[in-house]
Write a structure and sequence with these properties.
Structural class: mainly alpha
Largest sheet: 2 strands, antiparallel
Strand order of the largest sheet: 1-2
Shape: elongated
Order of helices and strands: HHHHHHHEEHHHH
Mean pLDDT: 80
Number of strands: 2
Distance between the termini: 119 Å
């Protein structure tokens, strides 16, 4: 199946934003070693895609709320079918179908952005200022636009270069290998950190799932994907990493707004993986992205009951209650 329609769509959005910034006077030439019109075009490519996918993001939040509301029933099924994994999975799938909850909905926005990511990766990988390069006008580009983007840099590092660029590729782009590695390395670390924080932010607010399948997805999102970027980031052009970092920052802001406006309900199973209702109610953490929260206030010990003193003029009460009175001789 041809992916040309994706390349045309990505190119059209990218070029439209570049033309918009050029029209309002942002220079196409480098300032501080950076071609800001092209950098902003990539940033607002993210904004465009996220606005289009906002309804999907809303569905993701609703699905996560539904999954959280089902946690007590999931826990009951786990207790009922302990040791019978096959029956447990069937019962949980039936529960999700009946309640119209989808465990995979949490990953849907990311999956829908994969074609955009691949399209931008393909388009930027083609950039090359070599005058002898053919097909510069493919995907709706003009030759001048292609040459301008091929020369675009971020602090002198070409947006088409990558950490793993060969000496021949760097020579074609007219790039300094040390500068490219430093810029790409820093951006890859930022990409990993922001990817981790986007997942951690949601888990801190909603808590870990009791469903093993859902919890496995949470662990994959939290640890697996950021670690995989340490390796795969070496083959991403700098322009693609800019897209990813911008997308993560957009996600952090969007999630923070939604979670503050529509806070998740507190459940008895929110908290670290492995906690359960038998450990007492554990509300989801809300101390920020890094898990820093104020220590819980320790309630003061109950005050001793006040003993009313004797009224003025009253006879004193014998403290030795139950002691027999003396005989009168």
């Amino acid at each position: 199946m041809s992916l040309d329609w994706i390349y045309y769509a990505i190119s059209w959005i990218l070029l439209a934003w570049h033309s918009a910034w050029d029209a309002i006077g942002i220079p196409d030439t480098a300032v501080l070693g950076t071609n800001w019109a092209w950098i902003l075009a990539i940033v607002f490519l993210v904004v465009t895609v996220r606005v289009i996918l906002f309804p999907v993001f809303v569905k993701q939040i609703k699905s996560q709320r539904a999954m959280q509301a089902l946690q007590p029933q999931v826990k009951a099924l786990q207790e009922k079918h302990k040791g019978d994994r096959e029956t447990l999975q069937k019962e949980m799938m039936e529960l999700y179908r009946k309640e119209k909850a989808n465990p995979l909905m949490g990953c849907l926005p990311m999956f829908l952005q994969i074609p955009v990511f691949l399209g931008l990766f393909h388009v930027l990988r083609r950039l090359n200022p070599d005058p002898a390069k053919n097909n510069k006008d493919i995907y709706g580009w003009t030759v001048d636009q292609f040459n301008s983007a091929s020369d675009a840099t971020l602090f002198t590092a070409p947006i088409a270069s990558k950490f793993g660029s060969t000496a021949a590729e760097l020579a074609q782009l007219g790039a300094n290998g040390t500068v490219v590695k430093i810029m790409a390395g820093v951006l890859v670390l930022v990409m990993m950190g922001t990817t981790y924080l986007t997942s951690r932010q949601m888990i801190l607010k909603t808590g870990w799932a009791e469903d093993p399948q859902q919890r496995m997805i949470q662990r994959l999102m939290l640890y697996g994907i950021p670690l995989s970027l340490l390796v795969s980031g070496a083959i991403f052009p700098i322009g693609v990493i800019i897209y990813w970092v911008t997308n993560n920052l957009f996600t952090l802001g969007q999630q923070q707004w939604v979670l503050r406006k529509f806070p998740p309900p507190v459940t008895a199973t929110s908290g670290k993986p492995g906690t359960s209702a038998r450990n007492g109610a554990q509300p989801a953490k809300s101390g920020g992205l890094f898990g820093r929260s104020k220590p819980a206030a320790v309630p003061p010990p109950p005050a001793a009951p006040k003993i009313a003193g004797p009224k003025p003029g009253a006879k004193p009460v014998n403290p030795k209650k139950g002691r027999p009175a003396k005989r009168q001789g």
